[in-house]
Amino acid sequence: MNSHFRSALLACFLQVGSAFFCASASAQNTSEVGIGLGATNYRGEISPQYQLQNNRPALTAFYRRDVSVPVTLRGGLLVGLLRADDGNVAGENNTVPPLPAYRQANTKGSVVEASAVLEYNFMDFHYRTDKVHFTPYLFAGVAAYYASTTTVTNNQALTGAFNRDGSMIGIAIPAGAGLKYALSEHINLGLEVGVRKLFTDKLDHLFDQDPLLVNPNDPDWYYYSGASLSYTFYKIRCPKQYRKNKRLLK
Questions:
Q1: Residue 7 falls within a domain, yes or no?
Q2: Which residues have CB under 8 Å from 67's CB, separation 6+?
Q3: What pTM value is reported for the model?
């Protein structure tokens, strides 16, 4: 690598870095608090695919902090219900497949989640000179959850093994996409869909059953989709010369 190429490469890195940190300095003065209403949905042994009829109510609360023009950090709380039923699994001709029809199991419960995610915004959301102001975004992060569920079966031959309840604490990976829309200078509307990848097959208590009746190699998931309203706070930084000599502000 010759010296001219190294110099050009260094100049590119410096230019990109300066652009990022300048954007960070201008954007880190905004933050948001908000609440959301939506639905949680379980996917696992009793619901091998996403099923709309398994949606149950969920509430969220969150805090966002901009660290640069495209990047936002978000901390959030989620409380939602979970349910699934073998009778809702549709096979050929919309009939219940033989295995769920024999198993006749259903799961009900709730989940509480605390998450920290990074959002990547495709547009400058806080540069609000446009008449229509919005941005799509992607997010990913890490979450801790507490789930409490009960699983029962209507097949009398399986009740001894399949009727279980309990709770657990675990780690999940949240990821998904959303859209932010500015209703006014301070009020924002949000829409979001996301998945939570779990590292366990124990959410429905079927992980150690007869391998002919369950799949022990398929970890459980849950989803959240919903809408939110948030309020944006703007912090105006005082220039250094005024902070050192506050009499200049008079």
A1: no
A2: 24, 27, 28, 73
A3: 0.80
